[in-house]
Amino acid sequence: MIQIQEVNKTFRDEDTHVYALRDIHLTIDKGEAFGVIGESGAGKSTLLRLLNALERPDSGRVLVGDHQVNQLSRKDLRAYQKDVSMVFQQFNLLNNKTVEENVRLPLTLHQYDHPLTVDAVLNFVGLEDKKHSYPSQLSGGQKQRVGIARALISRPTLLLCDEPTSALDQNTTEEIVNVLKKAHEVFGMTIIVVTHELAVIKALCDRSAVMEDGRIVDIVSVQKSAELTDFKSYHERAIEVLTHA
Ligand SMILES: Nc1ncnc2c1ncn2[C@@H]1O[C@H](COP(=O)(O)OP(=O)(O)OP(=O)(O)O)[C@@H](O)[C@H]1O
Ligand SMILES: [Mg+2]
Q1: Strands, E, within 89-189: which ranges?
Q2: Which of 8, 14, 18 to mutate to test the pocket of ligand 1 (most atoms within 8 A of CB)?
Q3: Which residue's CA is the nearest one to ligand 1's atom 26?
Q4: Distance in Å, CA 182 to ligand 1 centroid
Q5: Which residue's CA is the nearest one to ligand 1's atom 25?
Q6: Residue pLDDT tens, the chain, 245 long
């Protein structure tokens, strides 16, 4: 279980003072698929980054399972971070490394107890034939599937996704949502998805926080749809937008 209690976070420099998170209280169950939506600047990424300790709160507590994340020693923090993987909007692949090397990277940085194999995760995301390709030879959707394979190889118990589909078109978004959904079903980790795309939340998440200006203003139970009905085709959307007043 994840518990964020009374968390505040500000960013300061000489003349600005940004309240990125204000009085955040949030509980997320183990194994839940949880969404975070809100406009640009609402604090979504900052909230996510609390959970892998890339940001420290100014006040309050961040509890994940038995760990108080904001109070771990350096050694315990490294151990904790091994259980957490992240998927990024811009994929964050190393362009001078092959798909195989990118996916293997976490295993070269840390010792994991029960990692998956490169072949198993590439197979899982449907990219076994791209093992020896370089990122520049892949489409956006394929790059993100490499990003997901790299995130899964360590068998994380917490998967953090920051705008995983925001650099992708509608069809590719659907493809990535399906891979994340399958990962959640097969591995049962807790998954938190930050996005501004409601259809992604609708397809993937049980509940979603709505953020505004650093605050959680609502937590909504999501009526999941088996089909990604909100994803209209590019053609349908074009007709809708262009032909209506
Ligand atoms: N390292 C930083 N230094 C200064 N200000 C920051 C920093 N990180 C975030 N902020 C500010 O904190 C606020 C929340 O940022 P955050 O990145 O969490 O928003 P977001 O909801 O993820 O937005 P987006 O949808 O654009 O990614 C913003 O006003 C942002 O400018
Ligand atoms: Mg963000």
Answers
A1: 158-162
A2: 18
A3: 40
A4: 30
A5: 40
A6: 999 999 999 999 888 889 999 999 999 999 999 999 998 999 999 999 999 999 999 999 999 998 999 899 989 999 999 999 999 999 999 999 999 999 999 999 999 999 999 999 999 999 999 999 999 999 999 999 999 999 999 999 999 999 999 999 888 999 999 999 999 999 999 999 999 888 899 999 999 999 999 999 999 999 876 565 555 666 776 677 787 77
Beta bridge partners of 86: 160
- Helix (H) / strand (E) element for 245: namely none
> Which of ligand 1's atoms lies nearest the C-alpha of 214?
14
- For residues 146 and 99, is the Cβ–Cβ distance under 8 A? yes
**Domains of the chain, first to last:** 29-41+74-243 (3.40.50.300)
Sheet of strand 59-64, all strands in order from the earlier edge strand to the far edge = 17-28, 2-12, 59-64, 67-68
Q: Name all residues whose Cβ lies below 6 A of ligand 1.
A: 11, 18, 20, 38, 40-46
DSSP reduced 3-state for 5:
strand
- In the 8-state DSSP scheme, what is residue 4? E
Closest ligand 1 atom to the C-alpha of 194? 22
- Please give the backbone phi and psi of residue 103, each rounded to the nearest 5 degrees, phi first: -70, -35
pTM over 0.70, yes/no: yes
Residue 44 Cα to ligand 2 middle (Å): 6
Atom of ligand 1 nearest to the CA of 196: 25
